[in-house]
Design a protein that fits this description.
single chain; about 65% helix; 12 helices; mainly alpha
Length: about 300
């Protein structure tokens, strides 16, 4: 790939402190997104209301699109990565579906599906939830299509941002453990940019979101790639979102009310319950144990191509 013209190279920004680097990217996202939001979000809000699902989708899609554009530009112009997404950990080999890529995807999906199966099976055996299969014709194809699209979209965007770009920027300044915890906390905090009443109603899931970020961060190690990869975290994250979406939208899992919601999950969210938190911690332990068997080890500093 030809080198960039010197007039648009911005490598000096990469020499700034971590706080300034994050602030610059955040400011760039806001400045670019606001005028776009005026023409994409406000018209939807005028019909659906500012608290409507359509408004939330329009805002989320446009915001993430701008965020991806900005972090790609940061990698290309500031860090001067030849392939920014690859430098962030996105290793996608179309010719290797039955090789490394396929194994990583399969591993992440298997961990997510097995853990969700165990979660619901134990709750059902204890009588905490009831597994209900509809007797009337059910549009399963729509439930699965919605779950697959939502899972794939959310997982790709959030992992590329939090375990990709943010992880990489933190690693330029910090060690592995601080990066793991700080990225996990930021991941949880940004999920709580909601109205105050929603925050107060859903606050029990905050520790679960931190733990989820921690597990997915550890998942960067858990892949057949010598320098770490986002393929496994994306597969885990996407399969979890898909499984929960399908089970809830199809009404497959119904709480019996025999135990408090703080045990099973407030609002049906496994992350907002003690049992779900404990199971996720167990999954994290398994991920750490499996990743310790790979040859991947993060160095203390990042090289010029952004890969440890």
């Amino acid at each position: 790939m030809p080198s960039l013209p010197s007039r648009i190279r911005l490598p000096n920004l990469g020499q700034l402190s971590l706080g300034w680097r994050l602030l610059i990217v955040l400011a760039a996202v806001v400045v670019i997104w606001l005028p776009i939001a005026v023409v994409t979000v406000l018209p939807v809000a005028a019909v659906d209301g500012f608290d409507g699902n359509g408004t939330a989708i329009a805002a989320g899609v446009s915001l993430y699109a701008i965020l991806l554009l900005v972090i790609w530009g940061w990698g290309r112009l500031v860090r001067q990565y030849p392939e920014p997404l690859r430098a962030y950990g996105w290793h996608w080999a179309r010719k290797n579906w039955l090789g490394t890529t396929g194994r990583n995807l399969g591993l992440g999906i298997a961990i997510a599906i097995i853990s969700m199966g165990i979660f619901y099976a134990i709750e059902a055996l204890l009588g905490w939830v009831a597994i209900v299969f509809p007797t009337e014709p059910t549009p399963w194809h729509w439930f699965w299509l919605n779950g697959l699209l939502l899972g794939a979209g959310v997982a790709f965007l959030e992992e590329l941002v939090f375990r990709g770009w943010l992880w990489t920027e933190l690693r330029w300044s910090l060690g592995f453990k601080p990066t793991l915890w700080i990225s996990s906390v930021i991941f949880a905090v940004l999920h709580f940019l909601k109205p105050l009443d929603v925050i107060l109603a859903s606050w029990p899931q905050f520790p679960g979101l931190i733990l989820l970020g921690w597990v997915l961060g550890q998942g960067r190690h858990l892949g057949h790639h010598s320098k770490g990869t986002l393929t496994v975290p994306i597969a885990m994250h996407g399969a979890w979102v898909c499984a929960i979406t399908v089970s809830q939208s199809a009404g497959l899992v119904i709480a019996t009310g025999s135990v408090p919601q703080w045990l099973t999950g407030v609002g049906g969210n496994p992350l907002a319950g003690v049992f779900g938190f404990g199971l996720l911690a167990g999954v994290g332990g398994i991920v750490v144990a499996l990743s310790s068997r790979t040859n991947y080890r993060e160095k203390n500093t990042y090289s010029s191509d952004g890969v440890s």
